[in-house]
Amino acid sequence: MKKYIALLVFFIAHTVTAQENVLTAQDVAKIEAITNIVISQDGQKIAYQKVVPANPLEENVPAKSHLYIYDLSSKESTPLVTDYSISNIKFRPGSGSITFTAKRDKDEATAVYEMQPGGGDATKIYEFQTSISSYDWHSNGTQLAFVANKPQDKRENELPYTPEVYETDLENSTAFVTNLNDPTPKELAVEGHVTSVQWSPKGSQLAVAAAPTSLVDDFYTSQKIYIVDANTLNITAEVDHKGKQGPMKWSPDGKRIAFIAGEDQHDPIDGRLFIAEVTGGSPKILQKDFKGKFDGLDWKDNKTLYIQVSEGVYSSLGTIGLDGKMDKLFREEAMNITRFAVAGNNTIATTANTAQHPDELFVIKPKAGTAERITTSNPWLAEEKMGKQEVITYKAADGLEIEGILIHPINKSGKSPLITVVHGGPEAHYSNGWLTSYNMPGQLGAGEGYAVFYPNYRGSTGRGIEFAKSSQGDPAGLEFDDIIDGVDYLIENYDIDKDKVGVTGGSYGGYATAWMATRHTKRFAAGVMSVGISNNISKWGTSDIPEEMFLVHARKRIWDDYEFYLERSPIFYADQAETPLLILHGKDDTRVNPGQSYELYRHIKTRTETPVRLVLYPGEGHGNRKSTARYDYNLRMMQWFDTYLKDGSITLPDANIAPDGQ
């Protein structure tokens, strides 16, 4: 009888929700968004990519990336490529054509294609024996610098079986230059694994970013910038800096390189701005004490840069001089800016999202002060009812001010159940924009009566280097206490039901979820953990970033204090777990090995009577990329929260998932 009543309540609640035109899992699965953008030098055309997911009910594949062009004179967008995926869009110097990389049906590797802004079929203009991962045009429009793996002769194995030898025979990417009139590639004399290459404005030099090997750990911890002579292809200088490496850009006169990187090797994020001379040596940091994060850059002139920055949950565009003086150009608290591109006439193209929509294309005219929205990728969203989104601040137990974002439930009757969404990293942060995806309940949760909370706990980015480093050496300590302090603040001030608090997150957010479901199990009534950490000792030896973890998180070796790391592991408290826990993991995850999920599942299942379920996704890694896998994740996440936060059930929900609405 109790089961019948619970099902009836669930049916009525979802019927009311369906009638109100709120987001569903199928809606979330079809959301499109604008990603990469480039603007022509004259500021008249913008080429952009639109991410279009596949129908999860028909095929389980990654989203496609289509090519569009917007004409600022006619104010019209034209689709150029919609039948296959493209990347690395650029305007070819001197021709006005658009180039991109793609691997079409008959291609053996990813090649460079060209097409006219007016449309027509794309022409393959350069291919290599292996896939081209990135490229850059010389200012003359005929020479290319590109990054690809060296062709390798396949070794014949005399046995009918070939094992994999871990971290051996690594394939490094190399930088090449070629002239399309004589397309024989020449290799740059840069050892290691090249990640990007860029011509100087006059084409006499190239800037190359490279790591010692293709290991992910080296990518994060050991990249350097090298200056290469375009004639000899030899290194002439290198920038002496240790820290995570971000984007770089030549000054117009070719005398300097601006780049975004970590302040030092212990900075968890590439969020500081540096200027390096082409003669190499130590770079100069600009605005060392900036209480924010540099996200993007471009040169305005030889003494000034355009910059994109985050400050807490807000973002803005501005300028900065070589003397460090900063000026704001554009800031709208309701818009979260995600990237930008600048034309020669200072017209700015940018992508941004808001609480009502994901990334769209906007244009900011010189001295306009306002952003004109160009695209509407999901017009049906305007008909959906959205929960109010509010930026909140609260004090942690030690007095530190913490920021967060709260999405209110659309319908409220009495105290609200709460879903807490913890970001990964922890070197990341939530911005005041679109916060709904396959793994973030957001407006989907609001439509089903949940309040949804996004805390930017200590160790988050966007608030300066001191705040970003403030959680180091204290895993699951004050950083996760900040989250509980935020929940307490919401219970006291926003009419949240203290007995119906859930938690979810992926990666480091999955670690937080596991920690809350074990160490602080009395506080949380349900948890959905994704690709998370359960055992800090075994995690170190099975991850592809053990050195990065040491440098920017742990700050001491596990073998120097095994007991400490065990006591900061959710498995240590698994015997007291009372929080029903859904564990989700990609079977091919190399960042957080699926063994972390196996361990926690086995501990809880063996040592308690608490509901626990482990779901593995074949073909997925550190987060799901394919359409049906994402849709399944979303359905399971909401089913789990509905079961334990709404229905008050103590039994496991059905393991078989049906599409919503069926």
UniProtKB/TrEMBL annotation:
Signal peptide: 1-18
InterPro entries with a match to the protein in the record: 6-blade_b-propeller_TolB-like, AB_hydrolase_fold, Peptidase_S9_cat, WD40
Pfam short name (any one): Peptidase_S9
GO molecular function terms noted in the UniProt entry: serine-type endopeptidase activity
Name of the protein this chain belongs to: S9 family peptidase
SUPFAM superfamilies for this protein: alpha/beta-Hydrolases, DPP6 N-terminal domain-like
Biological process per Gene Ontology, one example term: proteolysis
Coiled-coil spans in chain: none
Keyword tags: Hydrolase, Protease, Serine protease, Signal
Chain ranges of the Peptidase S9 prolyl oligopeptidase catalytic domain: 443-647
Taxonomy, superkingdom: Bacteria
